[in-house]
Specification:
Length: 334
């Protein structure tokens, strides 16, 4: 089946617009991204008529930037960001989250009503130090009159990455928020500093309270860390220890389900960073399709519950936790 002319897709490595297949070309026709050289083949037409789908078939994907934090979100431990930064910078890579990052909507907006974020470049990474690691910034860009980005922005500092994102990625993909969504996120930004103070102080009070209950076998939060993890938390989390609190119930999976069902003020959602307090029992929801061994590998135990503590009055937060925990105990006894 022939592809219609003039239609293309974006390269998954660099975001550039891929050249469309020639009129009358056969399925499986191959091409190369004009910017990064990634090979691809046009797969059969997708269900939407006239929208060819590119299948990356000849080259492996570009290496991902190293991340400073573990991906097993249910049990986060503060990483040694400074040491990891030294290691990856020697190899010519930026450290995601320190040199550059992609910040999402959660804590910024204080709600889950808008999807958006920002690309942030710290301006501290030398993109020209190991040019072969950053070829799109150190070789002529054919989509922008042959500009070599590290040289073009040299008078402004080491900001080639963010400048190319604004001039090329934004041009090709758009990535523009609707006015209403932008308004909602800007409204959140105006209060994020105050909200984070309340998030962290409330979470600290919840940690202390949960540690005093006999039906809670473990509380997981930077405030409860010991040894090296405690040192890292005190080094990197000077503005507050965060609002994510995990704990394990002695009654296991069944107690976790009963606890969630009994909550009255907490919202039962998988999101985090909301102004409202949120709760999730991963073993029966987000991780329920995994085996027990796979759940354990991600840090999820049967009785594990994750809380995202909001900015409500702390007395209301603790009252809701207590009544739900008591209800779980009563149900177990019955």
């Amino acid at each position: 089946m022939a592809h219609p002319a003039g239609r293309g897709r974006l390269c998954t490595r660099c975001g550039a617009l891929l050249p469309p297949p020639a009129p009358g070309s056969a399925e499986g026709a191959e091409g190369t991204c004009p910017e990064c050289g990634l090979g691809f083949a046009w797969a059969p037409l997708a269900a939407r008529v006239g929208r060819p789908r590119a299948s990356l078939s000849r080259w492996p994907p570009a290496p991902r930037w190293p991340r400073p934090s573990p991906r097993r979100r249910p049990r986060r431990a503060p990483p040694d960001a400074a040491e990891r930064a030294r290691q990856v910078r020697r190899c010519g890579f930026p450290l995601y989250g320190l040199d550059a990052s992609f910040e999402g909507r959660r804590w910024v907006g204080g709600h889950g009503t808008s999807i958006g974020g920002a690309i942030i470049d710290s301006g501290n990474f030398d993109w020209a130090a190991v040019p072969e690691r950053q070829p799109m910034l150190n070789t002529p860009d054919p989509s922008y009159h042959g500009a070599i980005w590290v040289e073009a922005v040299k008078p402004l500092g080491p900001i080639a990455y963010i400048i190319r994102a604004r001039t090329v990625l934004l041009r090709d993909e758009g990535a523009a928020l609707s006015p209403f969504n932008a308004f909602q996120l800007i409204q959140g930004i105006e209060t994020v500093a105050l909200r984070m103070e309340r998030h962290c102080s409330n979470a600290a009070a919840v940690v202390k309270h949960l540690q005093g209950r006999d039906d809670v076998t473990r509380v997981i939060h930077p405030l409860t860390a010991t040894g090296e993890a405690k040192r890292r938390a005190e080094t990197y989390l000077k503005g507050g220890m965060g609002a994510l609190v995990g704990f394990e119930l002695a009654g296991g999976a069944e107690a976790g389900r009963r606890f969630i069902d009994a909550l009255q003020m907490f919202y039962h959602v998988a999101n985090i960073g909301d102004a409202r307090s949120l709760a999730i029992h991963p073993a029966s929801t987000t991780h329920s399709q995994l085996s027990e061994a796979d759940q354990a590998a991600t840090g999820v135990t049967p009785g594990y519950v994750r809380l995202s503590i909001g900015i409500e009055h702390i007395d209301d937060i603790i009252a809701d936790l207590d009544q739900a925990l008591n209800a779980a105990k009563v149900a177990k006894a019955a």
